[in-house]
Amino acid sequence: MKNIIVPVDFSEQSEYALRLAASLAKKHGSKILALHMLELNQAMISSSEGIFPEQTVFLLKLAEKRFGEFLDKPYLEGLKVTPIVKHFKVFSEVNEVAEKHHADLVVMGSHGTDGLKEIFVGSNAEKVVRNSNIPVLIVKDELIDFKVDRFVFACDFKDGSLPAFQKAKEFAELLSATLELVYINTPGDNFLSTGDAYNRINKFLQKANAGLEVKIYNDYNVERGVLNYSESISADCIGIPTHGRKGLSHFFMGSIGEDIANHSKIPVVTFKI
């Protein structure tokens, strides 16, 4: 894990993300890229009138000043932290920063239960998740020492989830965590018999060349199943696949993936398919 991006809006939640990123950086020798996006428009930057460029310079200097104060934390001592200020709230720029600096992970804060709180001014965590090509770790509470012993990864065990599974497996290995795979079996059209479920799972694991066990957990819906299973085994982190801009994966239809991130008491990391 070379570089970790932390979106910063100077809120308490972004500080939670920064502290978690610092914990990871110390363990893996990573650098932190603190990313802030300003609420500027093209007219303010390119106008030939005097007032807009002056306002732009003022806002940039203000952001730099706030960055200096925000990053003056004891837990960042000894770490390489690079502040990055972007003019726009364009989520594709997260990928540009990630590619330029070879980042492996985005760590960001969220309020959670009332919906994914805006981490950039005028934006929200969901958009970052959907635009990011690298895993996004969402945290809602302060975790002084982020240690993952049991990492739950839930998916539909169809071929489309193979890329996300491989990334989740690498993530678990990086953190020296036990990877707990689970298939959530629900009533209705998506219900599978035990035999059919294991048949699908075994084919998936063969293609993934992974000799791992998978738990079949029955619940009324996928969200409750993932959260209840994770709680039952005292998991430290939950992993879910996403399709990025195409929306949440078929397994997490509608807002299920977002609901898992919102309602989970533990950090959630998303892996783009």
- Assign a percent range to the helix content: 25-40%
Number of separate strands: 10
Determine the number of helices (DSSP H or I, runs of at least 4 residues).
9
The CATH class of the largest domain, by name, is: Alpha Beta
Low-confidence stretches: 114-123, 247-254
Mean pLDDT: 83
The CATH homologous superfamily of the largest domain corresponds to HUPs
Going across the major beta sheet, what is the strand order? 3-2-1-4-5-10-9-6-7-8
Quaternary:
single chain
Distance between the termini: 20 Å
CATH architecture of the largest domain: 3-Layer(aba) Sandwich
The rounded Rg comes to 20 Å
Order of helices and strands: EHEHHEHEHEEHEHEHEHE
Derived from helix and strand composition plus strand pairing, the structural class reads alpha/beta
CATH topology of the largest domain: Rossmann fold
Largest sheet: 10 strands, mixed
Please give the domain count: 2
Shape: elongated
